[in-house]
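Q: Give me a backbone?
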Amino acid sequence: MSTNQQDYQKLIAKMNQQMLVTDDDRVPLLQQILAKLGHPDHAYKIIHIAGTNGKGSTGAMLAAVLQKNGYHIGHFSSPAMLDDREQIKIDGQMIGYTDFLQAYQLINDQLPANFATNSLSIFEWFTLIALVAFQQAKVDFVILEVGLGGTNDATNAISAPLLALITHIDYDHTRILGHTIRKIATQKSGIIKTGSTVIVAPHQKRITRTVLRNVAGQQQVPIHFVNNIRLKVLAHNFTGTTVQISGPLIPNQTIQLGLIGGFQLDNLATVLSATTWLQKNNVQLDQRLIHEALAQLKIAGRMQVVQHHPTVILDGAHNPDGAKQLVLSLKKLAPNHKITFLLGFLADKNYLEMLQNYLPLAKEIYVNTPSQHQRALDKDQLSKTIQTHFSFPKEQLFNEPDAHASLSTALKHAATDDVIVITGSFYFIKQFEGDQNV
């Protein structure tokens, strides 16, 4: 292990692990720090992305398209799958230990002498380090994904971005963001700033569109709702999706998308609307290279096929809307196939409603506890919940010693054309990402 790696691990260990997103004084504090740093967020064009579901896929598509066209790209996203540094990527590669430590030191040198390192949360540190590292790397564009909400999220400390993208808004983190779509949409709309242009993904609830339209009006910015999309799926299987698409901001074209899942079509429409807007605003993008980038793209943890015959899928759906979209995709991709679920949830999520989506489709269920997470729902409690609240056959419910034992047993029970879905939380599926035994 190198000295820089040791120093990085010591630094991460002493960082404050709290989220702090409920405090409304955090963004002004971070803005003050960015000002002392000379506004690194002014050094590049930012595309800021908020929403309940779809941020990761939308951000990954845009980053891939821009990078394929020769631009240097910074990409900030969460959560990480295997290494926290995955959250900060430069031209598709996660930040190195040396660059991370240099950015940290640059920021730390500008903080008041009496300012403790752990006064900032780990997510706030990563946000600041990303913005500084992107400046140091001289990137052209930054894809900046909100961590949670919008208004009080650390990423909202930036000045007005070039584009503010709003992906699908639904219920999640209700204890923090509010228990109504109006309140959640209001929080997400906090990334809309005077000087930007807003693009909103399709299929939003009416109240969401009203909230976003009102905030855009208050900030005096143009807002584009990605509606009236003409879309026809020409082919779809576990290797990708071919779709013919056009709309008000999208020229008629046929796209081969490396990603699978029906929910990706709304993300695709949003991305193509954004790329069309960029082209109209003097960003040089080659249509052939856009198509190449989308065809080659794979994203860890988003309908990620890690094995064939039987098909094993990792998906990070972690709220009812994500669960619903996953089930719709499975019904289209694997009609009449036996589907087995390996489930592991966080206790503070609406896992009852997620189970309502999964259980009617499931032939077997394997309960699991996400490892190394204080919010994990214990698998024994999950098993009890399934038996108490749902009439799922007990002989088709399995409680193995650990997650890999669950997969091993599921594979023994599976025929070659069966589908095994590992889902419930990113904190659960990351136990399998990169595992050569899957």
